[in-house]
Amino acid sequence: MGSALVQLAKIASCRMIGVVGAAHKVEAAKRLGADAVIDKSHEPLWAAAERLAPEGYDVILDANGVETLRQSYRHLAPAGKLVVYGFHTMLPRQGGRPSYPKLALDFVRMPRFNPLDLCNDNKSVLAFNLSYLFHKTEILREAMERLVGWVEEGRIVAPPVTTFPLERVGEAHRALESGSTVGKLVLTMATG
């Protein structure tokens, strides 16, 4: 998702700061157009974010959820927008089943955004989940046609794809959980 966001931001002529969780992903983000990249494995995220944009950010795209939302909001510039599109940190890092006590604690820790505070801070919080937009086919079709057009024009580069045969699904899942992958993982099935 981050690779696509960097490229879309560059199409919109935005200065883009990427955030990665491992050093081997820094160059990939820069190649896609990130003006700067914060590597959370080597430097504190929010100190680096403040150094790169001392006045705050116009837009912060946050898929992490409870672990970062409060700070993401705090680091917005006046009139800034926090766009929430996931809750990655609420999911288990490895091993499948969620921890229900952790989910309950995360729910309690989830920031609540008061409309009066939003007005006083001159900030916005937006959120979406594409899974719940299937009934908005015209919007999705228009967006998909635009994205496909940009791919065909070479303005967006598709992510690298690593394939695993279906019988190696466990190995593919471990690779995904490790955080070492760049691009997309695809399971393939033998035909015939």
Automatic annotation (TrEMBL):
Tell me a Gene Ontology molecular-function term this record carries: oxidoreductase activity
Highest taxon listed in the record's lineage: Bacteria
Pfam families reported in the protein's UniProt record: ADH_zinc_N_2 (PF13602)
Q: Which residues form the signal peptide?
A: none
List, alphabetically, the InterPro entries matched: NAD(P)-bd_dom_sf, Zn-ADH-like_protein
Q: What is this protein called?
A: Alcohol dehydrogenase-like C-terminal domain-containing protein
Please name the source species. Sorangium cellulosum (Polyangium cellulosum)
For this protein's source organism, the top of the classification is: Bacteria, Pseudomonadati, Myxococcota, Polyangia, Polyangiales
